[in-house]
Amino acid sequence: MSGARSQRIAIADLHRLVVRVDRAPADHVMALEPARTRVDTRALHARVGKEGTVVFPFVPEGRYKLSDRRARIMFIDVPADGVPVFVAQFFDALRVVLADTRSNYWRDVGVATGDVIVAIDGKRFSPTKKPGDLVPSRHAPIAEKVRLTLRSASGAERNVEVLYYRFFGAKGAGGGHLEPLPVGSW
Fold it and tell me: What is the pTM of this model?
């Protein structure tokens, strides 16, 4: 079609991304989402097949974050030629994402969506490949308090004292979550 009322649109090449996941059991759900976005985007979800692979059809080129429910994360670059490149990534901070609920311990202690946790009890995080290592695991007494150093979007840092089990426990988030951030991204 051509003429005064015609338009040209560019359609990105789409690739079929197949990832072998050795340690994930069959039917385990994996998520693929754009890695560099500050907006909430919908992830593609796919189940691991019996042969230990997960398939994501129709993926445009770009950098993606592949994750599972246990917060294990791997970054993948899908270039124009469609051959994926796995990117080693180190993490050194946690971004707070609050659920849209009225009652939330995180909100009650002064933590907001977008705040970045850069230290716990004054100790900065050491870069790690395993995002789960950023949250200290401990058998804390119910009343144990820890001091979080938070960086806001403006770059200002502040300290907030929280009860360890309420903040890092399953019920403390009230539907929110902590998103691991790559070194230098915050």
Answer: 0.57
Instruction: Judge whether 61 and 27 are in contact, CB under 8 Å.
Output: no
Fold entry, domain 14-87: Immunoglobulin-like (2.60.40)
Q: Where in the chain is the domain with CATH 2.30.42.10?
A: 91-182
The CATH 2.60.40.10 portion of the chain extends over 14-87
Residues in Cβ contact with 74 at an 8 Å cutoff, skipping those fewer than 6 apart: 65, 66, 67, 86, 89
May I ask the CATH architecture of the domain 91-182?
Roll (2.30)
Q: Which amino acid is at 172?
A: G
Q: What does each of the 186 residues of the chain score in pLDDT, given as a tens digit? A: 566 676 776 666 788 888 777 666 778 888 888 876 655 567 888 888 887 888 888 888 888 888 877 666 778 888 877 677 766 677 888 888 887 666 678 888 888 888 999 999 999 988 887 777 777 666 666 678 899 999 998 889 999 999 888 887 765 555 578 888 888 777
